[in-house]
């Protein structure tokens, strides 16, 4: 995740450096001066992500029985539709495809067969976002994002009759999340480039529990909710 964050900073700094000359001269060249006055416009995004789970327990795990979740880097791609509500607020629909993977480790087991579960996911996300923009300065405009989404997991095995005894860690196929983030609009001669960092937080429990209510894999888990960090690069 640190490498992704560094990449985000490098791209943003490079883009702003390219715009800097036009921003800080006496008579800056304003790119796409009327772009944000459009009522409706479109775009697309590419990006990186790290998905994790927030785990809440019924009882605090005994020593040597903790559960650890490690997120792995994935990637994102999607479309963007924008409706301008007023000068500083936009409504955005950003359907996207997200590839994610986590590794869940159970300390109490000594073998990877029982002690590790790799949870892969292919998400189709349907978020509605509000974008709150600051006053534009030259060719730069910071903004904040907030929204809600419903997410379909195409890799869900929620209907499988097998559980962790057969090495099947099951999660629900549909989840709901809220998203908070920030970014900056950078206006070039022919397009607008908008890098952003977002946090995604699950609203509901996603775990499908094992058939045995006392299962060592799921018996002590109160809830399992998605957490994620997204870095998106949007082009309009």
Protein described:
Strand 8 and strand 9 form a beta hairpin. The protein has one domain: Porin. Helix content is 11%, strand content 55%. Strands 1, 2, 3, 4, 5, 6, 8, 9 and 11 form a nine-stranded antiparallel sheet that branches. It is mainly beta and 236 residues long. The model has no long low-confidence stretch (mean pLDDT 89). It contains two helices and eleven strands; from the N terminus they run αββββαβββββββ.
Q: Tell me the number of helical segments per DSSP (H or I, 4 or more residues long).
A: 2
| SSE order | HEEEEHEEEEEEE
Structural class: mainly beta
Mean pLDDT: 89
For the sheet with most strands, the description reads: 9 strands, antiparallel
Summary tags:
9-stranded antiparallel sheet; 2 helices; 11% helix; 236 residues; mainly beta; two-stranded antiparallel ribbon; Porin
